[in-house]
Design goal:
This is Cysteine synthase family protein. By secondary structure, this protein is an alpha/beta fold. It folds into two domains: 183 residues, Rossmann fold; 97 residues, Rossmann fold (3-Layer(aba) Sandwich), CATH 3.40.50.1100. Helix content is 36%, strand content 17%. It is built from nine helices and ten strands. The strands form two sheets. It has a six-stranded mixed sheet with strand order 1-2-10-7-8-9, with helices on both faces. The protein binds 4'-deoxy-4'-aminopyridoxal-5'-phosphate (PMP). The site of 4'-deoxy-4'-aminopyridoxal-5'-phosphate has 19 residues, from helix 7.
Amino acid sequence: MLVNNIYQTIGNTPLLKLDITAPNDVNIYAKLEMFNPGGSVKDRLGVNLIEDGLKKGKITKNTTIIEPTAGNTGIGVALAAQKYHLPVKLVVPEKFSQEKQILMKALGAQIIHTPSSQGITGAIKKAQELASEIENSYVPLQFRNPANPEAYYKTLGPEIIADLKGINVTALVAGSGSGGTFVGVTQALQEKYPDMQAITVEPEGSILNGGVEHDHRIEGIGVEFVPPFFNSINIDSVETISDDIAFYYVKWLAKNQGVFAGSSSGAALAAALRVAESLPDNSNIVTIFPDSSERYLSKGIYD
Ligand code: PMP
């Protein structure tokens, strides 16, 4: 495959039918988003956030892009901004993986840390403060920007439909951080499969099922506030997954399927297996594996 730039390699990731005996002989299909050039599902978002800002005139020549991020969005935004020679500042809570931060810097972004105890809410506040101080700056703000679910509605959802070649989807089971991936893919898939159940996944320590907010080891999913995008779809249920179970499946995926997947993928698989218990025989679940385990090796993901 000859390409003229790295952006042409974003998307068109494989959809892997897992070799797993799930309850009720349910089939589980996982979209392998670690195959994107920046290593995650968020490359799709980076491009859409930057191109949406350019189209709307919010980004012009030399606009400084400022974004609060747990890491993968930062990599996606830094990659996309490079195409337009835009400077990037990423506001990252300290706790997130070193690998992601090293990659953001390698792409040319500057990192500003906020205390882990203030969570993503602290990073959002800091990004807005910086934007008020820096002339000609723009905060795409993935947590509220409709260009976030739109990125997945336009690319990831249609790809899954095309990959499946007519196979029906009984349920989508996908994690939520900003909620953009889950909402955009749900909207695209439900146009094709109106009866599809939309089930999202959160770690213990996230609030969607009414739990108390606390720290968790799973990275990338979990919310401190209900994503505003959730208003535009019907959610059938939320599966809350513990760190231990997610990391069990991270190891299982490497050892049994040859798949290096991060902890939000492990959580998604655990949730898919749980959902399978209540589905009719031979149903089809689609899930999304957002990134690779390789960006969490320093955190002992396989220990
Ligand atoms: N998994 C990982 C590893 C992520 O980085 C993210 C994005 N924070 C997600 C899942 C969730 O994606 P979204 O923000 O679209 O809900």
